[in-house]
Amino acid sequence: MNKKGEIGIGMLLSIAVGIIVALVIFQASAVGIGQATTSQTMNQTFVSPAVNATIDLKGQELLSIPHVEWNNTLSNITTTIATGNYTITERISATDGLKRIQLQVLDPAATATPTLSARTWRISYTFGPEGYIDDAGARSIAGIILLLAAIAIAIYALSGARRLD
Fold first, then answer.
1. Which of 5, 30, 95, 161 has its CA 20 to 30 A from that of 83?
2. How large is the C-alpha radius of gyration of the chain?
């Protein structure tokens, strides 16, 4: 008596379920790794904080030198703000306890410029979003993990197909 057909149907179903589960996990991992390895660009307008106060900007890793400017409403001229009038650092936020990029307006007496607090500023910079892998080697390894997972799924499918023969 040949029971090869009965074993094949059960094996086929288990292989199909295994491949579907692996692909769902693979897709979720790919989205997470994509977000953790891709930088983003910010072009944001906001009202600057009071002197010596800080505000949280978007992102956790500052990847470029920010360009900061403000629009003088009296002359309607956009002016670049010199870096001595503010500081931008990566710190732990007092608001949510996560690593953030923070901007602080410096004391105008110390910078010999009129106060720039409570004015509309525009800032442009490249940043790493939450969960960004800041080490280039680690970002490369994260991509390789996806490649190895795809190879493992293919090997599982091929070995299952071989068992059906």
1. 95
2. 27
Residue 10 belongs to domain spanning: 4-37+136-164
CA 82 from chain centre, in angstroms, equals: 28
Specify burial of residue 158 (Cβ count, 10 A radius: 0-12, 13-18, 19+): exposed
Shared-domain flag, residues 23 and 77: no
Q: How many domains does the chain have?
A: 2
**Burial level of 59, CB count in 10 A (0-12/13-18/19+)?**
buried
Quick one: 50 and 18 in the same domain?
Answer: no
Does 61 lie in the same domain as 119? yes
Tell me the pLDDT tens digit for each residue of 102-139: 998 887 665 555 667 778 889 999 999 988 988 889 98
* Shared domain check, 48 and 114: yes
Predicted confidence (pLDDT) per residue in 47-86, tens digit:
888 888 888 898 888 999 999 988 776 667 778 888 888 8
113 and 90, same domain (yes or no): yes
Reported pTM? 0.71
**Distance of alpha carbon 153 from its chain centroid, rounded?**
27
Q: In the 8-state DSSP scheme, what is residue 115?
A: -
